[in-house]
């Protein structure tokens, strides 16, 4: 069996990194779109003075929040997969001696963790999922206001 060349490993590594970036871009685009839709529907619901006719719109806002939470969780799963693959390929390149030592990176990482002792522990994907769940709760709150006003 032929040995995999360093250039092939680098190309494969680059592909996984690009796929990871694409997942993050798609997550960002979806979040922005759902925030715009939520804002627009909120304006319409308020304009209609929270009548019973806008209850389906409130449910739609809640549903988009739930959908967004599930979608960004899936984007995180895919990004995590590609990052894991890229890290494995990085180890392969390091084992072949193509990359330098990991000492500089380890020192930079430790300095970063000292500078941000609490923030580095917060997982970013949880913030994104939380934002979408907040949109879902907001939609349910609008629904509750419509029921109370009516």
CA-CA gap between termini: 74 Å
The count of β-strands is: 0
Structural class: mainly alpha
Described by its quaternary structure, the protein is single chain
For the biggest sheet, the summary is: none
Please tally the helical runs, counting DSSP H or I stretches of 4 or more residues: 4
- Mean pLDDT across every amino acid position: 92
Describe the global form.
Answer: elongated
Order of helices and strands: HHHH
The structural domain count equals 1
Q: Uncertain spans, ≥5 residues at pLDDT below 50?
A: none
Strand residue content:
under 5%
Question: Taking Cα atoms only, what radius of gyration do you get, to the nearest Å?
Answer: 22 Å
Q: Level of helix content? A: over 70%
Summary?
The protein has one domain (6-149). Helix content is 81%, strand content 0%. The protein has four helices and no strands.
Topology:
Elements: H1 6-47, H2 55-95, H3 103-115, H4 124-149
